[in-house]
Write a structure and sequence with these properties.
Layout (H helix, E strand, L loop, with lengths): L1 H7 L15 E2 L2 E2 L4 E13 L2 E11 L11 E10 L7 E5 L2 E4 L1 E3 L4 E6 L8 E8 L2 E9 L8 H11 L1 H6 L1 E2 L2 E2 L1 E9 L3 E9 L4 E7 L5 E7 L1
Parallel strand pairs: 3-14
Antiparallel strand pairs: 1-2, 3-4, 3-11, 4-5, 5-9, 6-7, 6-10, 8-9, 10-11, 12-13, 14-15, 15-16, 16-17
Amino acid sequence: MKKFILIVFPLLIISTLCGCKGGCTKGVDYLDYVSERRTDIYLYSNDGLEIKIYLSERETPFSADGIKGDVGKLTEIFVTLPKNYEEVNVSVGGVDGEMNYRAVENCYYLSFSACNVSGESAAVTLKYGETSADFNAVNVKYSGVMDCDSAVKCVIEHDGGLFESMTENGIFTGEIFVRLLYDEGCYYYVGVCNRDKKINAYLVDGERGKIIATKELG
C-alpha cells in the first residue's frame, strides 16, 4: 500500500480519525451529490491470468465537471491474459459479450449497464483461442469494511470547511466521487469536485475511517 500512497497521494499523511457521525452541513445532505459510487470489487488472479470486476453506480456520460448527472448501474470487467488473443469473450451474472483490447493497460475490457453479480463471489466464464474456462472471482470486501456513504461522511467530518465553502443557499456547488480500492486491504478514494473542475481527493481507511492522505488535483 505504501507504493500506492506515494504515487497517488504524495502528501503528508494525516493522523485524524473520523468519527463518521455526521452527513450534513448547513442542512444539506451531501450524499445527494454523489455522482459515482464504486461499491464492490471482485478479483481472481493465478498464473498470469487476472480478472477484475467493478460494480458501480455512476453518472452517464461521466464528466468531472462539478455537476451531478443522471446516475445508473455499471459493471466493468477487466481481464489480463498471459498472451494476447484476437477475440476474448466473457460471461458473468447472466450477461456476456466480446471484450475490447486496451493496449495501454494491456488488458481486455467490457462494461454492462447492469449485471446480476452480488454476494461473496462471482462465476466468470472466459473464452479465448481454443480455451473455454470457468473462474471464481472473490469479493474483496470483508467484515468490518464501511460502505461508500460512510466513507463520504468521514471526509465531511474531516474537512467540513470545504463543504461549507461549496454550499450556497442550501445547494452544494459540486459533485462527489467515491470508489472502493483494494491493495491488501480495503480503502476508499473520495473526490470532491467543484464547478472549476478542481478536485480535493482523500484516501480513507476502509475499516477505521481514518483519512490517510489528501491531495488537490486540477
